[in-house]
Amino acid sequence: GLQIGAKKEFELTAVFGNDQDVILEIGFGMGESLAQIATDNPSVNYIGVEVHLPGVGNLLKLIQERGLSNIRIINDDAIDVLKYLPDKSLAGLFLFFPDPWPKKKHHKRRIVQSEWIAAVAKKLKSGGFVHMATDWDPYAQWMLEEMEAATGFKNSAGPGAFHPRPDYRPLTKFEQRGQRLGHGVWDLI
Asked: How far apart are alpha carbons 113 and 95 in whole angstroms?
């Protein structure tokens, strides 16, 4: 994992030992999706951020089993992590199934907020992307509104539209169960 401490900013070429594109995933859960994406795309580097230690442990196990050299892990709060990344350093950001904080009094805890989006925008290279997915319809609408109100972003599916799940985003067990129960999933790129 990457150590956040006295260092001001990560030098990503040094961290990975190459200058391949870097994609940040916030909240990788148990790490299965990130491990699959990294396996399928060896010429891209990935930084996974997760606060949940069992998820970190599971992803470390998957990295070892698959012999992956293109993933680094940060066990820290996603809001803080952005401070340690150089501006214009990311090719993209994944935010898959974040906590929707469904109660109105908790909406301020949602990660997708205008300040966070502005911080993400500074870290993306020109042409970089943000890919979000949620299975909670009200949060999908919230994400859509927040992203469309933000400057510098363009909805790849067109204004007010969601994107079909791209092939590179693996279907999670959680998502497969939801589909059997008739739940929707919304992707926004």
From this structure: 13
User: Distance between CA atoms of 33 and 147, rounded to whole angstroms?
Assistant: 24
Structure tokens of 144?
């859509």
Q: What is the CA radius of gyration of the chain?
A: 16
Angle at 21 between CA 163 and CA 33, to 5 degrees: 50
Q: What SS3 class is residue 85?
A: coil
Question: pLDDT tens for residues 132-164?
Answer: 999 889 999 999 999 999 999 999 999 999 999
The CA-based diameter of the chain, rounded to the nearest angstrom, is 48
pTM: 0.92
Tokens of 23: 């994609």
Side-chain half-sphere CA neighbours of 54 within 13 A: 1
Q: What residues act catalytically? A: 99
- State whether the Cα torsion 142-148-152-156 is positive or negative: positive
Residue 67 falls in which region: left (phi positive, over 0), alpha (psi -120 to 50) or beta: left
Evaluate the CA torsion angle 188, 100, 63, 129 in order and state its sign.
positive
The two beta strands, 22-26 and 90-96, are parallel
pLDDT greater at residue 7 or residue 175 = 175
CA 71 – CA 52 distance, rounded (Å): 17
First to last CA, the chain: 28
Report whether 70 contacts 16 (CB < 8 A): yes
